[in-house]
Automatic annotation (TrEMBL):
Stated name of the protein: Large ribosomal subunit protein uL29
Family annotation (CDD domains): Ribosomal_L29_HIP
Pfam families: Ribosomal_L29
Keywords (A to Z) from UniProt: Ribonucleoprotein, Ribosomal protein
Length: 76
């Protein structure tokens, strides 16, 4: 489930760890949606938390990619 992922904690992780976490969160997101759709869970807030955690991770991965590209172009 998507705990409150702090941006500082996520920045400390490597891109590979973030990608693995992203896959896990996507899987959790699907399971949460099925649980709500089938009536097993009435809480929809975990879906929102997971969606936001996914967005944070995608943003960090994009920042890391842009930073690496900028470094590579500066060396050229």
């Amino acid at each position: 489930m998507a705990e409150a992922y702090k941006i500082a904690d996520l920045r400390a992780k490597s891109p590979d760890e973030l990608k693995a976490l992203l896959v896990q969160l996507k899987r959790d997101q699907i399971n949460q949606r099925f649980a709500v759709a089938t009536g097993q869970s009435e809480q929809t807030s975990p879906i929102k938390q997971t969606r936001r955690a996914v967005a944070r991770i995608k943003t960090l991965l994009n920042e890391m990619k842009l930073k690496a590209e900028a470094k590579a172009s500066a060396k050229s």
